[in-house]
């Protein structure tokens, strides 16, 4: 993994279960411009699978877009097609070899990601949480006077008596 600059997105790769498509393992990379995938231990993502070459694929950040480069002898499939080099879309899935592991790619730009804290939340955003006590009392009264509630109370009374 080669270092990039802080404007590079966070990249997540997930190894997917071949039968159900659910993630089995996840790798997250921050501020990098290249990610290597292969059977060799010196790759960023090491996969011990006979369909995977020692250096099978490489992801590179070029002009703000991630590109998948196939380097393995068994090929790399994107959308079912063998590729040499392709720009990846968000949530792209690619397979290493004809029947090898499938990975899901996603990238999130740091500029698009933020987290709010209690320090920067406008308190007026919570005005909708104020409880109207008068309305609450009216609604409770409607429920208590309702036929369904009366039936439930009678049923509860009978159950207590039978214990």
Automatic annotation (TrEMBL):
> Record's superkingdom?
Bacteria
Please name the Pfam families in this protein's record.
Answer: FHA
Residues annotated as domain FHA: 35-83
Tell me what this protein is called.
FHA domain-containing protein
């Amino acid at each position: 993994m080669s270092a990039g600059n802080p404007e590079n997105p966070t990249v997540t790769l997930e190894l997917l279960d071949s039968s159900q498509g659910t993630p089995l393992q996840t790798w997250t990379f921050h501020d990098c411009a290249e990610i290597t995938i292969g059977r060799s231990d010196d790759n960023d993502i090491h996969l011990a699978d006979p369909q995977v070459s020692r250096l099978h694929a490489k992801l590179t950040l070029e002009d703000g877009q991630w590109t998948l480069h196939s380097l393995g002898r068994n090929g790399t499939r994107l959308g079912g097609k063998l590729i040499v080099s392709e720009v990846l879309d968000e949530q792209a899935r690619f397979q290493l070899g004809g029947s090898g592991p499938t990975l899901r790619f996603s990238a999130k730009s740091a500029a698009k990601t933020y987290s709010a804290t209690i320090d920067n939340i406008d308190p007026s955003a919570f005005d909708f949480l104020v409880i109207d006590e008068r309305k609450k009392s009216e609604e409770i009264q409607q429920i208590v006077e309702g036929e369904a509630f009366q039936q439930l109370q009678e049923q509860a009374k009978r159950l207590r008596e039978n214990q």
